[in-house]
Write a structure and sequence with these properties.
The protein has 8 helices and 12 strands. With 268 residues, it is an alpha/beta fold.
Length: 268
């Protein structure tokens, strides 16, 4: 996620101590659904796959297990140090915006919670589609986050209001860094505009208790971005409450909605 002050600086930094727990939280929230979508897209024995913005690498490693010795998986990230090794996984330090695509044509290309943060997201989608093999599929998954309406149960009556203020501050911060809050719903139309066929979208969310899933995501993000959130108006006292309650199992949050869109390149 890019900071407008420096095009090579991301809002969430993989070098921070909070990075690994936050990436793991995303996996807890979404990997089950993402696997289902990638199976539908064609991740199977012998496939050649690309994972863009691989994060902790859980999805890329799963792909590598599926494709077998006859297949190949390439995982990229601008800071790839959290991607676990796998004998059939090629890991590349790669900037999807400013660098050429990895060579070759891919049967499946996947990106989760990546393009929404890129000001040139539309051009990047076209770039990804250009690297599909005939008949190949691109799977773009993006989050629609509404923290203010996510509290299902709480030990502290202040928490719903705190999460609404957190949503407001995060939205201000991320929009300033290039995030498009509507992109999750715009992917479908963009794929059709680029000539993909069979475009379809499916959504996923479930509940998580404190210390898991979406609660861990809020915990890590609110701690890593604490100074910047205070800078755009969130009270420091609210962040102190969030730091504690997001680890409390009495808190229950509705998960972040993930919209997963698949489109296919025409076969020759």
């Amino acid at each position: 996620m890019r900071d407008t002050k420096d095009p090579n600086q991301y809002t969430f930094d993989n070098n921070k101590p909070t990075a690994q727990p936050t990436l793991n939280a995303l996996g807890q929230m979404f990997d089950e659904f993402t696997v289902k979508r990638l199976q539908a897209a064609g991740v199977t024995a012998g496939a050649r796959c690309l994972e863009v913005g691989a994060g902790a690498g859980s999805v890329a490693s799963w792909m590598a297990d599926q494709v077998g010795a006859a297949g190949e998986v390439v995982a990229t990230d601008i800071k790839p140090q959290h991607i676990a090794g796998h004998p059939r996984l090629t890991v590349l330090e790669h900037d999807i915006v400013n660098e050429p695509m990895p060579a070759g044509q891919f049967d499946v290309i996947h990106a989760r919670a990546v393009l929404a943060h890129l000001p040139t997201r539309r051009e990047v989608l076209t770039k990804l589609i250009g690297s599909l093999a005939p008949g190949g599929a691109v799977v773009i998954e993006e989050m629609e986050t509404r923290w203010g309406s996510m509290v299902l149960a709480t030990p502290d009556p202040r928490v719903p209001g705190i999460f609404q203020r957190y949503e407001n501050a995060m939205s201000q911060l991320l929009r300033g860094n290039g995030l498009d809050m509507t992109w999750a719903r715009g992917v479908h139309g963009a794929m059709r505009e680029d000539g993909l066929t069979g475009v379809e979208t499916e959504g996923w969310q479930r509940s998580f208790a404190g210390g898991t899933g979406s609660a861990l995501l809020a915990h890590g993000a609110s701690q890593e971005l604490r100074d910047r959130l205070v800078g755009v108006g969130m009270p420091a006292e609210d962040l102190d409450v969030m730091a504690a309650v997001t680890l409390d199992p009495r808190l229950v949050l509705r998960g972040v909605l993930l919209l997963s869109t698949i489109g296919r390149k025409a076969a020759r």
